[in-house]
Amino acid sequence: MVIDKAIAGRFISEYKKFLLAIYRPDPALPEPQRVIEKLAAARTRFVSNRGLLDEYLRDLEDGTESIDRQIILAIRSLEFSRWVYLRDLKSYSIFLEVGGEYGYGILGLNDEIKAITGGPGVFLESGVVVLDNQYVCDGLIATAVYLGRNMRNSWNELYKELKQSGNFKVHPLR
Fold it and tell me: CATH number for the 77-169 domain, one of 3.40.50.410, 2.40.50.500, 2.30.30.240, 3.30.2350.10?
């Protein structure tokens, strides 16, 4: 349950380039050593200041680098939240927003979500983007905590309710 490899590669390349361009170390914290930590910190910065994408694009307007508009639209659609990754179905993974108001059928980029988290039934923080008319996890997953059986049962009931009410979506434009 992953998106097309070519699209995933384009997204990863442009998203990483964007996040590294806006990354600024937090002087109150130790400097992250791993690139993934820098990417996650930059994503947090972007979520708190969406104008950073416009600034990034203005810097690229000199024409020295190409801009992949489809990927820029995906980055602009980023929704960072706390999710419950409930389980996998044949064609997507179930992500429910922890407030219980809605959920999405999610695809991974290069790896299925369960390969990143170690399995379903997890409370996590991650970004979700709209890419190629699919909801896709941005691959930067933090704070994974496994849910017990009773919690999973409760979330499964919520999933059924959201699906029945139309608040669970698999394709953004349908």
Answer: 2.40.50.500
